[in-house]
Specification:
The complex is a heterodimer of chains A (about 450) and B (about 500). By secondary structure, chain A is an alpha+beta fold. Chain A is built from 16 helices and eleven strands. In chain B, a hairpin with a 5-residue loop joins β2 and β3. The chains are: A alpha+beta (about 450), B alpha+beta (about 500).
């Protein structure tokens, strides 16, 4: 009975000429003002007076994909160095001053960008801008090799804590180096290699700063219980005198294609083997990006998803399964991974994963599966509207959309991308991108047991 | 995108943010250019205007005839609702022969309920765009759902099924038992997870209600059976003593109607009193070494038992902890990370508990600096007892706690977490109205007094999960107490 209902639904889905009208409860709008200083710094201001807090969020348009050979991990190391003080702000004062004002701060680096935020009570805005301006305009006069050494040690410990000492933690870098050719900017992980981190010099810091940490290569979003007028005056006061930097030029990345299936085995301090499948897909916001997000949800979003149901619930051969589309500025990838239960091998898991992908390629998902994914996405969008600050809050999102699509308030349009996804589109995406012939298949196995790896 | 952050590990503080949906864009007139910009004085940080007045969302409560307390916090900015149902069914109530039963029962709530199968429950939650969670800590069990307002009805129907009508089918019990057994295998590969099991096992010991692993052991998992789960559920999942907290785009009247319709018929029961147990005696300082050959870092936990959450000293303890290890500029992180580079982050916490709490200082440090890190930990934890804290540091800690407070109430989830703590520990619901005054009243003398009373280096249990062959000699040379060897469960190695 259930099977029949599913089949009928699929037919209906395929027949409908247009995507079903999907009305969301209300439109998502984040009204903003934007202006650009003469030195090229773009500023985005969003007033939200619901809570007396303010969020300052800075994006520098530089990430690990801009690193030079032999200096992997440098963009992220540099992010750490940005907290070590500047000409008018002694080492340690950045954090002390903010905490004494009741504010928090953090930063993060990806392949494509580096962001920084300060969140706190609304009256702390002048302090936040003063501190951010000082490190944008006056970082180098007080820069020393000791500061670089200190944060080098911290970042090497971050690599140990988050990658080396975490089970399966080195899987991702092993996938990237096989998915992308050596001269492709996504070939290496954001955290970089220990050797390259060790090699970074004070001179690298100077060069990187002068090339990328300029007002014309950054955007500043301010959101919260402030007025745009005050925000503008403060921004002009603190950032206005910082000189414009040279234009950033990038060479187009080489093509990233896999000639065929690539297999690899990584031995790790784990008891249960895990298999990763990775495919090239599309970059962020290109035509099939949202469709692939929906596919990931159909495959492994929650316990009623296809792979969870087969692998974990019915067959009970895996402990977990994860799928995601990861669209970046230059390229995208799709990944599926699953961990075997004791007594089961990766071959069993891989067969089921391939079977489920084949079913989707042959018949597509049901309309309900797609709607379920859309509802999940919509709820995530709504919850994101609750915060002005932090990673993923409104200020960060305004910068994200501004950099990736050129429109800060892209919330509703972004959500609409998901509302337009159809079962047929998901089916086409599986057929186009997620096939057995062109992928990296990485097996992570217990040490001394490479034979537990699966063949691609 | 893979993001590598500046800080990670233990979350410090809570995200702050606010929101405005479809707020009309006020067209902002741009003022004249700031004529002072050329002469801006960068030599000192700007003087700030006074902080905004504290205005926290109010909590309203009512009690249903069956004893279920309803607490509502209206937040109408975004059409989302966060619902947290708390029952007095935490893991402190695990029978001694069945460690892990409370968390297992909470897991089983979702594996079929009412007319829904296990897969139906998951499918419905996802279809509603709802995050459904059922879990147990030592002090309480909870079922929560976070959902867009327009799907609240369906979400509450699902929540009511899960809490009031769980099926506990034999086949589903067997399925979850198998899954948990496999997860316990995985847990042993994760050094941080191992430390989180070992530390409480040693601090509380096997006789204390907090002394067993939250998710049980291999042998106890193998014995989990339907009868045990049903018995636990019948005893403790009752409305009297239960609380339902609803935060978000609802009114009290609306919430009352929605909750009464679904939970009004929930039958009272004779819920046994929460276990009471004296604080376990602390042994002389000992280093417990758990071997993880090849580990790139040593995972360190240092501490001992601590006060109950309801102690009047809690405000002074919050200030103390902010000075020692609760924020980025706290002493432990400044020393171990920003001065020495031994770690990505070092922190401390007074764990809030109904019974005996715990103090813990923690970090993951590079293997070669394990002994050096222990020296710095002990130095800082002794110093905060021996020396009175200076005024700038005291003021910074108090400002961080009080001025940051509004941001903790910005989101429905953030506000729910704050109010949930009050409900879990029976604290007055107007607690945060007095919070700022209470924190501001804490003096340097208070800080030193609670440091001496609640941080006791002579009785530290020091847990180190790392590569024994690399770190043992260095630790021994510290002469900070005997070394004891424990397995991945914190048990003596025979």
């Amino acid at each position: 009975m259930a099977r029949l209902a599913t089949a009928t639904a699929v037919v209906l889905g395929l027949l409908s000429a247009r995507p079903p009208v999907h009305l969301f409860a209300q439109s998502l709008r984040v009204p903003y003002q934007t202006f650009t200083l003469p030195n090229g710094l773009q500023v985005i201001v969003h007033e939200d007076h619901s809570v007396p807090v303010v969020a300052v969020n800075t994006w520098y348009h530089v990430g690990s994909s801009d690193e030079k050979p032999g200096r992997t991990g440098f963009a992220h190391l540099f992010e750490h160095i940005m907290f070590m003080g500047s000409q008018h702000v002694p080492t340690g004062a950045f954090d002390r001053l903010l905490e004494a004002a009741g504010a928090d701060n953090n930063g993060s680096t990806t392949e494509d960008r580096t962001n920084y935020y300060e969140d706190g009570p609304a009256n702390a805005l002048p302090l936040m801008l003063y501190l951010d301006a000082d490190r944008m305009g006056f970082l180098l006069p007080e820069m020393t090799a000791d500061k670089v050494d200190l944060q080098r040690g911290v970042v090497q410990n971050e690599r140990r804590q988050s990658y080396e000492n975490r089970p399966y933690g080195l899987a991702e870098e092993n996938i990237l180096e096989r998915l992308y050719p050596a001269n492709h900017p996504y070939h290496w992980p954001v955290i970089g290699s220990m050797a390259d981190l060790q090699a970074a010099t004070l001179d690298d810091v100077r060069q990187f700063f002068q090339t990328y940490y300029t007002p014309s290569n950054a955007s500043l979003a301010i959101a919260g219980d402030i007025t745009a007028r005050d925000a503008r005056q403060l921004v002009e006061r603190y950032f206005g005198a910082i000189p414009r930097g040279p234009a950033v030029t990038r060479t187009p990345p080489p093509p990233a294609q896999l000639a065929g299936a690539v297999g690899a085995v990584l031995e790790d301090r784990v008891q249960l083997p895990r298999v990763y499948d990775a495919w090239h897909t599309v970059k962020a916001f290109s035509a099939d990006d949202a469709t692939l997000d929906v596919l990931a949800n159909v495959l492994a979003g929650g316990r009623s998803s296809r792979l969870y149901r087969r692998l974990v619930y019915e067959l009970q051969i895996a402990t977990d399964v994860v799928a995601f589309q990861d669209g970046g500025r230059i390229d995208g990838k799709f990944e599926v991974y699953a961990t075997a239960r004791p007594g089961h091998d990766l071959g069993e898991l891989q067969r089921v994963i391939d079977e489920e992908l084949r079913k989707l390629a042959d018949r597509g998902p049901t309309p309900r599966e797609v709607e379920r994914a859309q509802n999940t996405v919509e709820a995530q969008f709504l919850s994101r509207m609750e915060r002005v600050g932090g990673f993923g809050g409104k200020a960060d999102q305004l910068n994200f959309y501004n950099y990736f699509v050129g429109t800060p308030d892209y919330f509703q349009k972004d959500l609409a991308r998901y509302a337009r996804v159809t079962p047929a589109a998901v089916q086409r995406a599986v057929q186009t991108y997620v096939t057995g012939a062109h992928r990296v298949v990485l097996s992570v196995v217990p040490q001394g047991k490479p034979e537990l790896g699966v063949r691609p | 995108m893979t993001a590598d952050g500046r800080t990670g590990g233990l979350a410090v503080g809570v995200g702050r943010a606010s929101l405005a949906l479809a707020v009309a864009a006020a067209l902002l007139t741009t003022g004249p250019p700031d004529r002072l910009s050329a002469q801006v004085d960068r030599t000192k940080p700007p003087a700030l205007p006074p902080p905004p007045a504290l205005k926290l969302p109010a909590v309203q409560t009512t009690t249903l005839p069956n004893g279920l307390t309803l607490a509502v916090v209206e937040m109408h900015k975004v059409p989302v609702v966060d619902v947290q149902l708390l029952v007095d069914a935490g893991a402190a109530r695990d029978p001694s022969a069945a460690p892990g039963l409370a968390t297992f029962t909470a897991t089983m709530l979702q594996q079929g309920a009412g007319a829904r199968s296990a897969l139906d429950v998951a499918d419905e939650a996802a279809f509603l765009g709802a995050q459904l969670n059922t879990a147990a800590s030592f002090d309480a069990a909870s079922a929560s759902i976070h959902v867009p307002k327009r799907r609240l009805d369906g979400a509450l129907d699902l929540l009511a099924d899960v809490v009031l009508r769980p099926s506990f089918a034999d086949s589903e019990v067997a399925r979850q038992r198998q899954l948990r057994a496999a997860q316990l295998v995985q847990q042993r590969d994760e050094p941080v997870a191992v430390a989180n099991v070992v530390f409480p096992a040693i601090v509380y010991g096997p006789e204390h209600p907090y002394g067993h692993p939250l998710n049980g052991t291999d042998s106890a998992t193998a014995r989990l059976a339907r009868e045990r789960v049903v018995e636990f559920y019948r005893s403790y999942y009752r409305p009297n003593g239960g609380r339902i907290l609803i935060v978000g785009d609802v009114t009290l009247a609306e919430a009352r109607r929605l909750v009464t319709a679904r939970f009004g018929g929930w039958e009272r029961g004779d819920v046994p009193a929460f276990p009471s147990a004296p604080a376990p005696a602390s042994a002389a300082r000992t280093v417990y070494l758990i071997d993880k050959p090849g580990a790139a870092q040593s995972v360190i936990r240092i501490g001992h038992v601590g006060p109950v959450r309801t102690t009047p000293d809690w405000f002074a303890l919050e200030v103390l902890n902010t000075i020692v290890g609760g924020a980025f500029t706290s002493r432990l992180n400044q020393n171990l990370r920003e001065t020495h580079g031994y770690t990505y982050g070092a922190f401390s916490q007074f764990a809030p508990r109904r019974l005996t709490g715990a103090f813990v200082a923690l970090a993951s440090v590079v293997t070669a600096k394990t002994d050096s890190s222990l020296i710095e930990f002990l130095k800082e934890l002794r110093r905060v007892r021996d020396e009175a804290v200076g005024l700038p540091e005291l003021s910074k800690a108090k400002a961080y706690l009080t001025l940051g407070l509004p941001g903790d109430f910005e989101t429905t989830g953030g506000a729910a977490a704050r109010f949930r703590e009050l409900l879990t520990f029976g604290l007055p619901l107007d607690y945060y109205d007095r919070y700022v005054d209470r924190i501001n009243a804490v003096t340097a003398t208070d800080v030193q007094r609670v440091a001496r009373q609640y941080i006791d280096p002579d009785h530290f249990d020091i847990v180190v999960v790392g590569d024994k062959s690399q770190i043992e000699a260095g630790i021994r040379a510290l002469n900070e107490g005997p070394i004891a060897y424990r397995d991945l469960w914190g048990q003596e190695i025979r």
